[in-house]
Amino acid sequence: MVVDFLAKYYENIEKYPVLSQVEPGYLSKRFPSSAPQDEEPMEAILDDVHQHIFPGLTHWQSPNFFAYYQTNTSTAAILGEMLCAGFNVAGFNWVSSPAATELESLVMDWLGKMLDLPRPFLPFGNGGGVIEGNTSEAITCTLTAARDRVLRKLGHNSIAKLVVYGSDQTNCSFQKAARVVGIDPRNFRALKTTRSTLFGLSPDSLEKAICLDINAGLIPLYLCATVGTTSCAAVDPLEPLCKVASKFSMWIHVDAAYTGASCICPEYRKFINGVEFADSFSFNAHKWLLTPLDCCCLWVKDPNALVNSLSTDPEYLKNEATESKQVIDYADWQLSLSRRFRALKLWLVLRSHGVQNLRSHIRNHCRLAKLFEELVEEDPQFEVVFPINFALVCFRIRPSGVAGMSNGHVDNEQGEAWKLNEVNRLNAQLLYAINASGRVFMSHTTVGGVYVLRFAVGRRL
Ligand code: PLP
């Protein structure tokens, strides 16, 4: 019944208002305030899903959804989720479910090869891959490993001196991770980016910031470089950034949450050139690789760095396989103890699509983004604000498209600020009107003070 229900949902998905139109608290008015004492039939429950849950859904899989970044899925992956939930193993160590561990290692190896990751990230180069829930976890785990690697040498009291670096475009999960692992908030550097570097982090500004910190008696610890930033898909130049960070023996993490999937296409692989100098690399298969949440793929060159920080050895988990040191216990590579059999869905995706079809899926989205760019550029009222590397188009009503802008108000700094505010305000109004129509859902961002509408192509075709 549920499979049929979902099949019908997908058949009709584009007919629903893509952005949910409900008011906060709508559901508590519709459902009883306590759980039923007796069982209820599935028909009644599904009927309630249809009547009451549907209106409160924003339809992320709708072809009219262009907001944030895509989180696409596929039949194969949904079936993989069913198998995962059906088996419901909590494969924290090898012995708790050998297939869960071994399939995860296999799938991460396949995927690492598909991305052409450098040998030191793969098992035959002494590295390894693990599926985390999300990028926030991947960053938190690698930052913990980096922290402990340094504190083991310098003593725990040095924690207050550790400094972490990213740009003002780095995803907010980095800031949260830094807080969680005990980095003094004053030692969190979000280095300013500008249009001149297309909002990528400049190696010079990184080096200057590190030198200033060292002169102030602080210790540079970790760089989070991003390939495909959340706001505008900017690309940090990995190779020169890694050269700077390596001089100071920092841990370098490459966050390619959105764009990593595109690197399975040889023509997009260049965006992660330089990853060979990093310590860890992650991307979210749950964004662009037809795999539903949650599925963040993380590779590290030195798995022991994770294990040294995250392993525990309680009596109730002791077993011969672990003691033999011949197996991986993935709980030691992540925060929680229990873990889902996530590899199943990824394995189903890779097998039932095959690399060639997955590449076509990525290329189609990039092609459609280019098509959208052309349509926007054809209209003189609009402009595309950043060059398009992937499948995100950031655009806006251009200032000259706004009445009263071109004949100039005041030609000084104040006048410029007024103009920018006015243009930003109009663009925000436009987005509000578009989203209120329920026909399309887009989101926005502000980069360098400029408000842009974000059109992220990425539904299942
Ligand atoms: N990093 C980047 C570049 C992102 O775009 C995102 C989310 O969009 C994240 C990190 C956060 O990912 P997660 O929700 O998997 O923690």
The computed structural class is: alpha/beta
**Quick one: how many beta strands?**
11
CATH level 1 class label of the largest domain: Alpha Beta
CATH architecture of the largest domain: 3-Layer(aba) Sandwich
So, the CATH homologous superfamily of the largest domain?
A: Type I PLP-dependent aspartate aminotransferase-like (Major domain)
Order of helices and strands: HHHHEHEHEHEHEEHEHHHEEHEE
Q: How would the global form be characterised?
A: globular
| Radius of gyration, whole Å | 24 Å
Q: What is the fold-level CATH name, i.e. the topology of the largest domain? A: Aspartate Aminotransferase, domain 2
* Main sheet summary: 7 strands, mixed
Cα distance spanning the termini: 25 Å
User: In order across it, which strands form the biggest sheet?
Assistant: 1-7-6-5-4-2-3
Family: Belongs to the group II decarboxylase family.
Pfam families: Pyridoxal_deC
Protein name: Tyrosine decarboxylase
Keywords: Decarboxylase, Lyase, Pyridoxal phosphate
Please outline the helices and strands.
Blueprint: H1 2-12, H2 42-53, H3 75-87, H4 98-114, E1 128-132, H5 135-154, E2 162-167, H6 172-180, E3 188-191, H7 203-215, E4 219-226, H8 238-247, E5 251-255, E6 280-284, H9 285-288, E7 296-300, H10 303-310, H11 320-324, H12 343-378, E8 382-384, E9 392-397, H13 413-436, E10 443-447, E11 450-456
Parallel strand pairs: 2-3, 2-4, 4-5, 5-6
Antiparallel strand pairs: 1-7, 6-7, 8-9, 9-11, 10-11
Helix pairs in contact: 3-12, 4-12, 5-6, 5-10, 7-8
The structure holds pyridoxal-5'-phosphate (PLP).
